[in-house]
Amino acid sequence: MVPMDALKLADTAQSANPNKNYLFDDLIARIHRAPAQWRLIVTVGQPGDPTDDATIPWPEGREQVDAGTLTLDEVESEAPGNCRDVNFDPLLLPVGIAPSDDPLLSARSAVYSQSFTRRAGEKKEPSAITPSDVRK
Ligand code: HEM
């Protein structure tokens, strides 16, 4: 995902900002000003390119396909539970997408399932972030 409006280096100087939520607050303000967008760039591998170790970069110059744009133009709080009751298992894939032989995928699938099962059984406090917090 390649940001179309990348974080400016000057913004990172705010890390000394006393408001520890400045990235969170800034994202909300930014999306109210204009959509945040990323391009989905797919790199096409060649036979022999490693698919089982994400720490080994593929050689330079591989064909790249611009597969579309992700646009975030609305902010929602988590209060209605819209992203809470989701398992982010990387092996739950849509038709047409197959997993690689990267062993991290099945390791992640197993720990996400365990994590999801544990948090699904926890008592839920009301969200600290309400719908009005993201409408400011
Ligand atoms: C390419 C590497 C990885 C990516 C892109 C990734 C991405 C993610 C994402 C998007 C979430 C959901 C975050 C959220 O709830 O907002 C997540 C959760 C989580 N990740 Fe990863 N992750 C990666 C590697 C790993 C590894 C190696 C482990 C441990 C073996 C791991 C353990 C977890 C756990 C335990 C959760 C919480 C799952 C749940 O309760 O639903 N992740 N990860």
Describe the protein.
Strands 1-2-3 form a three-stranded antiparallel beta sheet, with no helix packed on it. The model has no long low-confidence stretch (mean pLDDT 88). It has two domains: 1-75, no CATH class; 80-126, no CATH class. The two termini are 28 Å apart. It has 136 residues and is α+β, with helices and mostly antiparallel strands. 25% of the residues lie in helices and 14% in strands. The chain is built from three helices and three strands, in the order βααββα. The structure holds protoporphyrin IX containing FE. Protoporphyrin IX containing FE (HEM) is lined by residues 87-88, 104, 107-108, 111-112, 115-116, 119. Residues 87-88, 104, 107-108, 111-112, 115-116, 119 line the site of protoporphyrin IX containing FE.
In short:
With 136 residues, the protein is an alpha+beta fold. The protein has helices at 9-12, 22-33, 103-120; strands at residues 2-3, 36-43, 64-72. Strands 1-2-3 form a 3-stranded antiparallel sheet, with no helix packed on it.
Keywords:
single chain, 136 residues, alpha+beta, 2 domains, 3-stranded antiparallel beta sheet, 25% helix, 14% strand, extended, binds protoporphyrin IX containing FE
Secondary structure: helix percent: 25-40%
Bound molecules: protoporphyrin IX containing FE
Radius of gyration: 19 Å
Q: Beta fraction of the residues?
A: 5-15%
List the domain count as a whole number: 2
Number of helical segments with 4 or more residues: 3
Mean pLDDT: 88
Spell out the helices and strands N to C: EHHEEH
Strand arrangement across the biggest beta sheet = 1-2-3
Query: What is the molecular shape?
Result: extended
Tally the beta strands: 3
Distance between the termini: 28 Å
Which stretches are poorly predicted, pLDDT < 50 over at least 5 residues? Answer: none
Summarize the biggest pleated sheet.
Answer: 3 strands, antiparallel
Structural class: alpha+beta
